[in-house]
Amino acid sequence: MRKSDKKKENAIIRALTQACEIAKDRGDGFEWLTHFVDYERFPQSLQVVCVYSTNEQLARTDRGEICSLIQTSLASINIQLGNIRKHVSFDTEENCERDNNGDWNKRL
Is the pTM of this model over 0.85? Predict the structure, then answer.
């Protein structure tokens, strides 16, 4: 990883951590998020995965609101993504437990 990529990565981590803390405080079952990126194809390659506790909680959540929160956090560090919904996906602990015995490394 180039030094400039490492700086971007650290900024992304800080921005997404801020979004994560705000989302957790909403109390709707949001648990955590993670991201993946290929800096050779940045920012198009940036993917964020938001994880909820249960499928029921995920079904009730306002995905647009979470996407907007992530987009705002990334914009604060000058990362502009055209259609944020192409960069954000959703999953649940319930699905990972059922399909992958709770092994997120396998699932992701």
Answer: yes
| Cis check: omega of the bond before 43, within 30 degrees of 0 | yes
CB 34 within 8 A of CB 108: yes
Topology, domain 3-97: GMP Synthetase; Chain A, domain 3 (3.30.300)
What is the pLDDT tens value at each position of the chain, 108 positions in all? Answer: 899 999 999 999 999 999 999 999 998 999 999 999 999 999 999 999 999 999 999 999 999 999 999 999 999 999 999 899 999 999 999 999 999 999 999 999
